[in-house]
Design brief:
With 203 residues, this protein is α+β, with helices and mostly antiparallel strands. The protein has a single domain, classed as Inorganic pyrophosphatase (Inorganic Pyrophosphatase). 20% of the residues lie in helices and 31% in strands. The strands form two sheets. Strands 1-4-6-9-7 form a five-stranded mixed barrel. Helix 1 runs antiparallel to helix 3. It comes from Kaistella antarctica. InterPro entries: Pyrophosphatase, Pyrophosphatase_sf. Its cofactor is Mg(2+).
């Protein structure tokens, strides 16, 4: 008899056969959350990272792409794009936010998403890319194929969140967004993070 087991969300779930065009996403946070959850890298369970201190709420589903890692190859893309004051990848799985019109109440799930762009974010010297994607089959967002097709208000809303979610009111900004890029570069970032994962963990 084969014993049941729970696959580790980072290491035990494939990125998907159609990557980087369609990727699996492990969702950690949904827009209704007032607690920031993140994966515990050792156990694979969601853990409480911190309560949200202010009114900035994540405007999309948020998580990571399994079997990715942000290190030298992701750093190389940031440097090649002209980013300055960046020394390394952030040594975490690749972050991704997924736009959907559906009211999803909790994280800890897997979904398929289509990358349409991203933000080249630099956080205290680390390349911390945020991929922007749409939920596969979503009736309101699923037809978008590039971030340039989104309403600018939607892009600015995402940018504002990522630029402010770590800041206290009396502190200077900790993060900068070097550039907003489209689907083609987003897929390069995904592939670079897959290579970084293979270099770090094998496979």
């Amino acid at each position: 008899m084969i014993p049941n087991f729970k696959a580790h969300p980072w290491h035990g779930i494939p990125v998907g056969d159609e990557a980087p065009d369609v990727v699996n996403v492990f969702v950690e946070i949904v827009p209704s959350d007032t607690i920031k959850y993140e994966i515990d890298k050792q156990s694979g369970y969601l853990k409480v990272d911190r309560p949200q201190q202010f009114s900035n709420i994540i405007p999309a589903l948020y998580g990571f792409i399994p079997r990715t890692y942000c290190h030298d190859e992701v750093l190389r893309l940031a440097v090649e794009s002209g980013a300055q004051n960046v020394d390394t990848g952030d040594l975490d799985p690749l972050d991704i936010c997924v736009l959907s019109s559906h009211n999803i109440n909790s994280g800890g799930m897997i979904m398929e998403a289509l990358p349409i762009g991203g933000f080249k974010m630099i956080d205290k010297g680390e390349a911390d890319d945020k991929i922007v994607a749409v939920m596969k089959g979503d009736h309101a967002f699923g037809h978008f194929r590039d971030i340039s097709e989104l309403p600018q208000a939607e892009v600015k809303r995402l940018m504002h969140y990522f630029l402010t979610y770590k800041n206290l009111p009396d502190e200077p900004a900790k993060c900068t967004i070097h550039e907003v890029y489209g689907a083609e570069h987003a897929k390069k970032v995904i592939q670079a993070s897959q290579q970084d994962y293979a270099n770090k963990f094998g496979g």
